[in-house]
Amino acid sequence: MSFVTLGALLVALLVGAPIAAHLLRRRRAEERPFPPARLVPPTPPTARRRSLLEDRALFATRAVSVLALAVLGATPLLRCSHLSLSRRAGASVALAIVIDDSLSMRARTDGAEGAAREGRSSQASSRFERALTAARELASGLAPGDAAALVLAGAPARVALASTTNLAAVSEALAAAAPSDRATDIDGALALARDLLRGLPQSDKRIVLLSDLADGTPGAPPISGTPDIATWVPLQELEATGQDCGIVRADRSGQKARVRVVCTAASTAARGPDIAVAQRDGGADVPLAAGASAAGASAAAGRSLEVRAGDAVLGKVALDPALRAEELSIDLPAGAPEILIAALTGGDAIAEDDRAPIISAGGPLSIAVVVDPATTHVETGGPPPLEQALSALDLDAQIRPLPSVPEHADELAAHAGLIVDDAPGFTPEVRRSLAAWVERGGVALLTLGQRAAAAPLGAGFEPLVPGVVRWSASPVPGVDPATAGWLGPSAPGLADVAPRGRATLGAEASEGAEVLARWADGAPFLVRRPLGRGVVLFMTLPLSTEESDVALRPAFLSLLDGFVGAARARGGARRLSAGEVWTFDGYHDVKVERVRFDRDGAPQGSRSREALPVAEVERRLRVSPPLAGLYELTLDGERSTRVVSVPEREIDLRPRRVAESARAAELGGMAASIDGSPYVALLLLGLLAVELLLRSIAGRQEPAEGRAS
Prior knowledge:
By secondary structure, the protein is α/β, with parallel strands linked by helices. The protein is built from 14 helices and 33 strands. The longest helix is centred in the last third of the chain and has 32 residues, at 677-708.
């Protein structure tokens, strides 16, 4: 508040003037007839008694008038600003508001971060709450004829409200928005927002991005708009700053708890693609931005990792001040309870990632691989391309090469996914065990080649792949990219694949299945076939580098990524990241509940469990948990526990760059709220009229009293 504003408000002290005026007002003493007084000569009076507050209504009117006068003087000087759009010649606007609801947006603003680090409480709001307030301010400035949409930028990006001219629906959608523990998907959210705005009749189309810009890719191209749709990043105060340490994984194996802790540098330490250094992390080199080592040290300095059972601490280890990413091991005492919590002491930018439930035998996802190294070798040496690709993707999966497909279901039960390259058919025993494993939720990927077509008598692929597999020269080269959307942006890379031959399938192989990609002549290239609670994917090309180079193309990495994701979603892993999807094929009664814990880490009981909605998409039951924590699943009466963790890249608080065009003043800014001076002036006029009326009434009463006396 400025000195001029304060001076204007000090006029309110003059409210004491009416008090003094009423108390000092003198009036003629009241006369009472006294017969003996006629015998005494009259003496002029030298003083009159002071009156008390007699006309309270008149006094109250004058006091309120003085206060209103002070408000009137200060109103033009007060600036209650709010976010607003700048319109082009008053034209209607098509607006898409993108709100980042990821984990990093839970960081507190203003002085709350420092208070948390020092162990003090703070009532400051989070970045998400500030973004939501700004979105409401923009929505309140919309006028009839404007269109608005709402997109949430937590991965995967989602449309919370499609483009609409119903402004009440915008307010309802904003009221339903809530923070989550998802990763950030700014690029995906902006792409969705552009799709929602294209085709609208308004010529002025804009996207407003309300995000801390920390999406784990600080070196990505700057955020900017397109020639037809402008992008505005208005609030620099939301930009990610500060330091954070978080628990991204906590597993229990026997009498040991293994907890992965990641600490990141301050966002100001590195902006953009700075020179990186490497720090040894369990045998692997981890890239760090310049300056991140020193800044990351302060994030972990003086802090410890504890394993708790309720309010009891079962184990504790101090964090290395230079910790960047490390898996810490803590010995557990004998008889430790089943439910344990890993927690970091102290405070940092984000409190929600400082605790995580510890689960038994969580471990990485197990993917079994059956491949012949002799047919899929590469000239540079090393493991087969399939194993190299799975390792390069870093999908938190453990690759287990097998010499052959196990014949017993018990051997397959330890794996969530199975990849078999060009097998010469399966024996009846293997087919039965494979089918039973898939029906219980397993995911299999079969590549069919020349050996598959030459299966000996009694060997085959039924019921995994119905019909007969044949091998012949490829009549046309290339895969049709328009039919390969499941492979993502890398699908066009298969358009020029020219294999020496390919497998052909009968029509029965596609019955009840989904063709994910087709050859240029329409024949199936990649097919997904559900079987019980699991799924079988089969491709009509082997992985042999002598037949084609498909295993060396980026689209093959997309195929493996989708395969591992399907294995994880179907329950192959007891842990997944917030925002990923559990898919329950073959189940009819599905119930998912999040278990809440109290401050000491103990479960709060069944009454505090939060049930998640189960959606049916394409006749498949799906659940997408938005928050990290412990979940209880009831699948057709069978109960199990799973864990949702925070995405590791979300702890990186280095923001992306923003193009100058996205900060342009002509797009909008902070505007003053409506001036209340006219309303206060009208109030003053009304008070003046009331005062005149009261004085008129009082003037009439005094002569009447004089005549009566």
